[in-house]
């Protein structure tokens, strides 16, 4: 299989422009908010910071009032190309990269695995329900859809009340036991799995309905196509027709949604991390916004933007591989 050069070039140009626009918005958006991190810090430490120290802080964070916004914008690009995301105002002037890297693995491990499991399980279940339309399996659709409509905040609290407080099956909060420190041991890994099981299950339950419903509806459309009738008329096994012909074409629209879901994994689920007190990127972004920590906000936004773009690139490649019409149209 050969992917046309024009297809690759057009997609590359589009995503480069999108990345440039997203980074530009990432720079200007925090500065459009009322106040700034230095002012907020001065208010919290009234009388403890001298004017000279305030000026030094503004220069450090690129908020020097003597420099124009365009000079700050130019400096921002120079720092990005050098790999410097700045220093976090709300984390003791720690490098933003270090702050993000300490929270990112927790989000990727929990939300990433839960999203992939939900997609695979929901897509496979939706394909089977669509293949056996009109059977008793259709009852799964309204049940899963109902759980998807329940606000996640309530779903998480109910899960904690039932499975943690009442039954005691899972810990109620945090990523590991209090008093423990992250280390690569069997005991610590067991703690992480135990603490992450309940949030992961709630994420799967909350998102499963959308995948099932979307795949089922696409299967109903695909099953009426002529190539499905021809494949069945040739005497092909039902399993081969289901997975190699029907499900393969029905899942194409699912890939776009899955790509966006994969991209937003980096952003985490803020509500989930608040309910379960989980130390992820979503909670980090919320804290940075509250503290008006520009460098940390920009760093988190940048990581989320790049993750979404990379996920969409992978979705385009998957489309080109699974659907030859995409390659022919772009060529």
Automatic annotation (TrEMBL):
Biological processes, Gene Ontology terms: transmembrane transport
Question: What InterPro entries would the database entry show?
Answer: MetI-like (IPR000515), MetI-like_sf (IPR035906)
Q: What's a single GO CC term here? A: plasma membrane
Ranges of residues in domain ABC transmembrane type-1: 104-315
Record keywords: Membrane, Transmembrane, Transmembrane helix, Transport
Q: Where in the cell is it found?
A: Cell membrane; Membrane
Q: What is this protein called?
A: Peptide ABC transporter permease
Species whose genome carries this gene: Cryobacterium zongtaii
Q: Which CDD domains match?
A: TM_PBP2
Q: How does it sit in the membrane?
A: Multi-pass membrane protein
């Amino acid at each position: 299989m050969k992917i046309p050069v024009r297809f690759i070039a057009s997609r590359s140009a589009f995503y480069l422009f999108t990345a440039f626009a997203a980074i530009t918005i990432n720079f200007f958006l925090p500065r459009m908010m009322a106040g700034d991190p230095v002012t907020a810090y001065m208010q919290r430490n009234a009388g403890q910071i001298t004017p000279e120290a305030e000026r030094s802080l503004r220069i450090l964070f690129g908020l020097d009032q003597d420099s124009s916004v365009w000079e700050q914008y130019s400096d921002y690009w120079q720092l990005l190309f050098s790999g410097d995301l700045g220093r976090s105002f709300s984390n003791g002037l720690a490098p933003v990269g270090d702050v993000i890297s300490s929270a990112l693995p927790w989000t990727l491990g929990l939300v990433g695995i839960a999203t992939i499991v939900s997609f695979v399980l929901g897509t496979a279940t939706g394909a089977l329900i669509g293949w056996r339309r009109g059977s008793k399996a259709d009852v799964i659709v309204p049940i899963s859809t109902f759980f998807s409509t329940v606000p996640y905040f309530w779903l998480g609290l109910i899960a904690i009340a039932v499975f943690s407080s009442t039954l005691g099956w899972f810990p109620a909060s945090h990523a590991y036991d209090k008093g423990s420190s992250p280390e690569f041991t069997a005991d610590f890994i067991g703690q992480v799995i135990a603490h992450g099981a309940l949030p992961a299950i709630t994420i799967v339950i909350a998102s499963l309905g959308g995948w099932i419903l979307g795949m089922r509806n696409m299967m109903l459309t695909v099953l009426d196509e002529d190539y499905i009738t021809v494949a069945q008329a040739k005497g092909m096994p039902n399993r081969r027709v289901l997975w190699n012909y029907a499900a393969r074409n029905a899942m194409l629209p699912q890939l776009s949604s899955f790509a966006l879901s994969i991209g937003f994994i980096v952003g985490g689920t803020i509500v989930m991390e608040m309910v379960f007190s989980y130390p992820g990127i979503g909670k980090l972004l919320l804290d940075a916004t509250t503290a008006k920590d520009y460098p940390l906000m920009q760093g988190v936004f940048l990581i989320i933007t790049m993750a979404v773009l990379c996920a969409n690139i992978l979705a385009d490649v998957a489309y080109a591989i699974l659907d030859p019409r995409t390659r022919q149209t772009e060529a």
